[in-house]
Amino acid sequence: MPTTVKGLPVSGGIVVGRVLVIDDSMRRVVRRAIAADEVKRELARLDAALKASIARIQALHEQAEKDMGKEAAKIFTFHIGMLKDPALLSQIRGMIERDRVTAEYAAMQVLERLASMFRQHKDPVFATKVNDIDDLTDRLLSELAGAEAGANRAAGADADTIIVARDLTPSQTAGFDRSRILGFATDLGGMTSHTAIIAKALEIPAVVGCQTLLATVQDGDLVVLDGDRGLITLHPDATMLEQVSRAIEQRRTQQAALVEMRDLPSVTTDGVAVHLMGNIELPEEVSRVLAAGGEGIGLYRTEYLYLTGSDEPNEGVHYRAYKRCVQLAAGKELVIRTMDLGADKYTQAQEEIPERNPFLGCRSIRYCLKNKGMFKKQLRAILRASADGPIKVMFPLISTIAELRQAKFLVNDVMEELEEEGLPFDRSIRMGMMVEVPSAAIQADTFARECDFFSIGTNDLVQYTLAVDRINERVANLYNPMHPAVIRLIRDVARAARRHRIPVSNCGEASGDLEFAMLLVGLDVTTLSVSASSIPKLKRFIRSISKEQCERVARETLKLDSDVQVAAFLRDRARRMAPACFDDVERE
Ligand code: PEP
Ligand code: MG
Q1: By three-state DSSP, how is residue 496 classified?
Q2: CATH class of 253-582
Q3: Residues lining ligand 1, judged by CB closer than 6 Å?
Q4: 27 C-alpha to ligand 2 centroid (Å)
Q5: DSSP assignment letter at 339
Q6: Least confident window among 195-204, 412-421, 484-493, 547-556
């Protein structure tokens, strides 16, 4: 009997393959005492393992640079730096000599101690490194074991393999041989984990946060992984396999047809332009957005500079990333969002963050305003890059007017500094804010007077309005942008923007959903920022509907009482308005 496990769809595509389990329990190492005359041998084993690990990481680094660009590949610089760190190595060597333990045991003890120190560190930049240290521990232990463990197991994968793991590290993911590994699913991880980002950047179909998958599969099981919908189906029967192969073929044809949309304008049938922009995490993605037909970048999530780098990025690192984006955007609009660190942006280490309620804690703009030195470094880099092409700066998670004022004040402060230093920048740089907290939406009129644009972030707006954790599978059924309360907030924000003549966009995931996009356009939110892969289908849809129809739909929607009603209504209207755009979706 086929059974389906649901997870989070982090990287699109449907694949059918055989399971290969990577279980990190392989990492457990027992303490084994060694004789005095074995110490030398253990030290030599350690040196050989270090050398081999460095060589492998070096190779991965070079490959990752080619595949994903310099920013993403920086993860590996950190790994190499750690393996060469004299203080760390002398601790491991010291333990082998003093305590007479195996190289495996000493390496694991020392690295785990380090990981636990990082975990407790107040600075989130350190906390994000825990996963990297785990990655390194795996690597070193598997070299020492000289056998198949973790990544090595994946290296021996057969053709048409789907990896299933409790969790995967970024370097494991980046090291997958794409000719044999079709996709992966993990029990842990959120939409914004390092691993999810790498999967998207490499376009490997992936589902994370499956919770119970590892307990239900075995090596060799046949599975269907649907990265578009976040589904893993175990033991598919012949009927299902037939359906899946039709769906794969259909997807392929659709993708090909959609590519033709690229150069066509994104306008409704009654001639209203709906601007389709891209959301990116890494500078290299700018090209993908433009190739998919995007008009520019509506959201650059700059915190990935922290999540992929080895240390806190200095001004030069920021500047080079922004300049690269400006170059790739070639005159197109580029909205750089200042760092949104915290809450779910701590990769897999999020549970370890010493805040009881990190989503309501010191995240995002709050964190930046508390760490002004760090924040100003970023602002300086953004402003310097603004001399090279059009940039807008956007502040996330604004919940009080004081925060917006303080952030703008710091930008002006930095402008003065740059002026004194004789460095060029765009003096009239536009400064906008994300509306992703109900207080900002309710007070949109006040905020609209003091900023140049709004971008609604429904990912967070939904969780804060409905009190539903956006990454918690257990309440996923309650997380719905179609809730009337959310829709009313969006309506009010759009009205305030209109009244004060400032542009408003939506950059949450919901903009990529055709039915929700129809509603947004009807509410007068006519700039949508989505992931590159969503742009073509959205453009085809926009070109099939009229603004007037969308407005009518929005008016009717606002009369409805529940998310269930809204969902059913939008589903029906969207299909009536543009049936061809939904041919692919009905294959449950
Ligand atoms: C949002 O909250 O909608 C948003 C776009 O920001 P992020 O997903 O990065 O929190
Ligand atoms: Mg957000």
Answers
A1: helix
A2: alpha beta
A3: 299, 301, 340, 436, 457-460, 507-508
A4: 35
A5: P
A6: 195-204
